[in-house]
């Protein structure tokens, strides 16, 4: 499955199949949330939250790809990600794009 954020794939003619998306809401356990909260005092990178967001993006992307595969897609174009805080320590990630199939070139005589 080819995934791109452009609306084209060089050298391919595309047939649009439709919108596909994937989403998840992720949180870290309370112990990690407390230790990350202490970073507000001393500053620094919130590594546990970075990991959480990486995991969330990967899971949302996997779900989008599964939806595209159900449509028989060869690729997803125009991919976009969005995230939002749901509550303290929890975030929603959504990814969406257009599922496409490669058009087969017909032989000309």
List the SSEs and their pairings.
Layout lengths: L1 E2 L10 E14 L2 H13 L4 H24 L4 E13 L2 E13 L7
Parallel strand pairs: 1-3
Antiparallel strand pairs: 2-4, 3-4
Structure overview:
The protein has one domain (2-102): Translation Initiation Factor IF3 (2-Layer Sandwich), CATH 3.30.110.70. Strand 3 and strand 4 (90-102) form a beta hairpin. It has 2 helices and 4 strands, in the order ββααββ. It has 109 residues and is an alpha+beta fold. Strands 1-3-4-2 form a 4-stranded mixed β-sheet. 34% of the residues lie in helices and 39% in strands.
What is the H level of CATH, i.e. the homologous superfamily? Hypothetical protein apc22750. Chain B
Unreliable runs: none
Determine the number of helices (DSSP H or I, runs of at least 4 residues). Answer: 2
As laid out across the biggest beta sheet, the strand order is 1-3-4-2
Pfam family, one: YbjQ_1
InterPro entries: UPF0145_dom_sf (IPR035439), UPF0145_YbjQ-like (IPR002765)
Family: Belongs to the UPF0145 family.
Organism: [Clostridium] ultunense Esp
TL;DR?
The chain is α+β, with helices and mostly antiparallel strands.
Structure keywords:
Translation Initiation Factor IF3, four-stranded mixed β-sheet, 2 helices, alpha+beta, about 110 residues
């Amino acid at each position: 499955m080819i995934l791109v954020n452009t609306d084209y794939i060089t050298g391919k003619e595309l047939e649009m199949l439709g919108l596909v998306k994937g989403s998840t809401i992720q949180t870290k356990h309370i112990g990690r949330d407390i230790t990350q909260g202490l970073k507000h005092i001393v500053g620094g990178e919130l590594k546990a939250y970075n990991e959480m967001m990486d995991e969330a993006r990967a899971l949302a992307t996997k779900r989008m790809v599964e939806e595209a595969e159900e449509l028989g897609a060869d690729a997803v174009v125009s991919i976009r990600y969005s995230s939002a805080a749901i509550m303290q320590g929890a975030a929603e990630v959504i990814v969406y794009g257009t599922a496409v199939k490669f058009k087969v070139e017909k032989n000309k005589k």
